[in-house]
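Risk mitigation, structural track. In case the binding assays with adenosine-5'-diphosphate fail to produce interpretable data, a predicted complex structure has been prepared as a fallback.
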Amino acid sequence: MIEARDLVVRYGAATALDGVSLSVRAGEMVALIGANGAGKTTLVNTVCGILRPAAGELATTGRLALVPEGRHLFGPLTVDDNLRLGAWRDRTGRDTGHIYDLLPELVPLRKQAAGRLSGGQQQMVALGRALMARPDVLVIDEMSLGLAPRVVEHLAAHLRERNAEGLAVLLIEQNARLALDLCARAYVLEAGRVVAEGPSAELAGSPEVAAAYLGLES
Amino acid sequence: MGELAQYLVTGVGLGCAYALTGSGLVVIYRVTRVVNFAQGSFAVLAALCVTTVLAAGLPHGVAEGLGVLLAAVVGLLVGLVATGKPGTTPQAALIVTLGLGVFAYAVEILFWGDQPRSFPGLGGAIGGVQIHYLLIIAVTAVVLGAVALLFARTDLGRALTATAADPYAARAVGIDVVRMGLFAFAVGGALGGLAGVLITPVQQVSFDSDVALVVNGFSAAILGNLTRPGLTLAGGLLLGVVSALVGGYLSTAYQSDVALVFMLVVLIARAGRRDVVEAA
Ligand SMILES: Nc1ncnc2c1ncn2[C@@H]1O[C@H](COP(=O)(O)OP(=O)(O)O)[C@@H](O)[C@H]1O
Ligand SMILES: [Mg+2]
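Fallback model:
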C-alpha cells in the first residue's frame, strides 16, 4: 500500500525528513508517533503527493485518502457537500448515503455548514470525507488532538471497525498510548529520522520509548 | 415615456454591465483571492473584437459570441500569467493584472486605434424604451442566474468554493487548485466580455472604457466583500441608476464620481462596524 525508502524532504535549506523508511501493507494498522516537529506531517504530505521528496523512493498502491491535521474541512460548505467532494476523483461515486450508514452521527448535521461544528463533529466529517474516496489505505494525521476522550474513543471504535473490514490505516498520533493501543505496529519519528520501529507491544515495553513518549519513568 | 423612467431604464442597463463586471471580479476573487484589475479590459477587447468581426460580415449573435469567447480565452491567459507560477501571492498577482490591463491598452490602440467605436444592437423601442436595454437586462439575469446555480448546485461549483475555502484540503481530495483558478479567470473573462458586448450598442467603447467599468464593478463587488454575488448585482444596479440620474439631472461630469463616493461610503460603514466589533 505504502512503501517509502530513505525519503529525504527539505523545506528550503532545512531538512525535515532525513532518510525515512516506512511501509504499510494491505489491511494493516500502523502508528507513527513522535513529538511536535518530528516530521510526521511532512511524511504524510509526501506520501499523499502534496510534497515532493528530494531523494528516496516512494511507491503507493491502491487508493489513499487523508484526514489532514487540523481537520481542514471546507468551512462554508455543508457537511454533505464536504462529503461529496471527498469523492472528487470519482465522478460516479459521489453518493453520500453509505457514509451516513457508517457514521450515523453525521445524519442530523448533513445540511449544516462544516465550519460551525464542534471539533469532534468536524473530525467525524473529516473521517467521512476521506472514506468517501473508498480508500484502500487511510492516513490520519493527529486524530485525537484537541478532542475530548469520549470523542476519541468513538473515533477509535470507527477505525477498528473499518480496519476489520480490510481498510489499511496509517495513524499519526502524539498520544502514543492511544496509537500503540490501536495499532499492531508502530514507528517512532524523532527530528526527521525513524529512531524505533516494531510491534506496538515491544515498543511500549522498551524503556526509552516508554520514557520519551508514554510519560512513564523507567 | 417620462424623463425619469427613461433614466431608470438607462441606469439599470448600465448597472447590468457593472454587475457583470463586478461578478467577474467576485468569481475570480472567490476562487483565487486575486483582485483582477484587468477585468475592464475583457469588456473592451470583446467589444472591439465584435466591431471587427461584424465588419468582416459575420452575423450578429455569432459576432457577440466570438467576442465573449475571446474574452474568456484572454481571461484564462491573464490567470495563467498572474497565478500560473507556483507560490505567487494574491498581492503579487494583483500587480500583474494591473500591468496586463495597461498592456491591453497598447494592443487595443495598435489594432483598433484610439477612437471610440460602436456597433448596432437590437433595434426598435417599446413605449419609448429601446429594446436593446431589455435585452441587456434579460441576458444579465439569465447569465448571473446560471453562475449562481453553478456555484450552488454543481460539484464543479462546490470544488471552486472548496478551493477558495481551503486549498490544502482541496488538494488532499484531488482537486487541481491551479486548474480551478484558471477556470475562474476564464469565467471572469467571459462575464467581463459579456458586459462589453451588451453595453457597446448603447454606449460607445474605446480603449480606456475599462476604467469606468472596473471602478464601478469593483465598487459593486466590495459591497459584498468581493465574495457575495447577490450584493454585487444589487450594488451594480444601484450604481447604474444613480449614475444615470446624476448624469441626467446634474451633469455627466459628475457620473464618474458616483462610484468613488459609493466606495468611500461602503468602506467607512465597514470601518465603523469593525470599530464596534473591536470595542465589544
Ligand atoms: N511549510 C514549512 N516550511 C518550512 N518548515 C516547515 C514547514 N512545515 C514544517 N516545517 C518544519 O519541518 C519540521 C517538521 O514539521 P512537521 O512535519 O509539521 O512535524 P510534526 O507533524 O511531526 O509536528 C519542523 O521543524 C517544522 O518547523
Ligand atoms: Mg503534524
